[in-house]
Amino acid sequence: MTEPLLRIDSLHVHFPVGGKFFGRGRRILRAVNGVSLDLHEGQCLSIVGESGCGKSTTALSVMGLQAPTSGDILFRGKSLTGPDAPARKDRARIAQMVFQDPYASLNPRQTVYSSLAGPLHLHGNRTRSEIDDRVAEMMRLVGLLPEHARRYPHEFSGGQRQRIGIARALILDPRIVVLDEPVSALDVSIRAQIINLLLDLQEKLSLSYIMISHDLGVVEHMSDRVAVMYYGQIVEIGDWEPIFSRPTHPYTRKLISTIPDPDAILRKGAAERLPEAPPPEGWRFHPEDVSTPDVYAEPAPSELVQIGPDHRVRCRPAA
What local confidence, expressed as pLDDT, does residue 102 receive? Predict the structure, then answer.
């Protein structure tokens, strides 16, 4: 397989919590605990899990908005962390983010034109006419009229605002776009339009996505690969098809079982739709009781075990 576009290598992000003066009594919250992921050119890698599992902290680290405690993030083999990290302006051309809430992510005091043109002004080397042309191009690309760029955010619907957020993320032509719950704040009737827009843009512009989500229906539709995150660690990772059709880790199985099944509803609540499958020997968690680990303590030794061509699951190493 070719070299990944982005590699996250043993990423740790820890936060001090509580305590008194001079750090006495302070505990360490291990929000991200040894996460390693690869994103390949043109792929959509989804990181899924419940709130608080560390997926958004991982995304913020990729964006350079959260400094890692340890580990490395590499873009085309070059480190994005440490003393040799690229400048903030250079990093903005590598990765951009589409935020969850289109109502909060746009400045209500700025016109859409100002929001889109701002990054171009900061990065310079463009004339006024070139900036105008680029803003108009991006408005058309996301399905909006260029002349509407002179309006304010409150004059647009939620779906239109999210299109503007996508245009702003793409204005500098980044290679990676981080999608943080990109449709969760939208009406159900609008979600499919935004999902289809993102898929069209991915193909047209050769984009690579990292999507943060707990909506497994969206994940199944958009993803090439899926990483399941539980309390700061990846517990299962692979191509989307084996993750959804043959989930192996007990936590993954519990997540998949939450996807609404019309057939099960018609059967008036029939048992879980997924067939039972015996786990590999040495689960980190008991298959019938996914216990809550202590996020302040070092995790028990475990490793990702290969169980398919591109399908790994976290287990304890054999004794």
Answer: 87
pLDDT computed for residue 216 by the predictor: 87
Q: How far is CA 97 from the centre of its chain?
A: 9
Give the CATH fold of the 6-94+174-317 domain: Rossmann fold (3.40.50)
d(CA 5, CA 38): 8
Can you tell me which residue has the tokens 């480190």?
Answer: 79
Query: Beta strand pairing status for 303-308 and 311-315?
Result: antiparallel
Per domain, the residue ranges of the chain are 6-94+174-317
* Pair of tokens at residue 270: 């029939």
The CA-based angle 175-176-179, given to 5 degrees, is: 145
β 233-239/225-230 pair status: antiparallel
Residues 3 and 313: their CA atoms lie apart, in Å, by 22
Residue partners of 124: CB distance under 8 A and separation at least 6: none
Gap between the Cα atoms of 161 and 159, Å rounded: 5
Burial of 66 from C-beta contacts in 10 A (0-12 / 13-18 / 19+): middle
Q: Which residues of the chain have pLDDT under 70?
A: 1, 19-25, 261-294, 299-301, 316-319
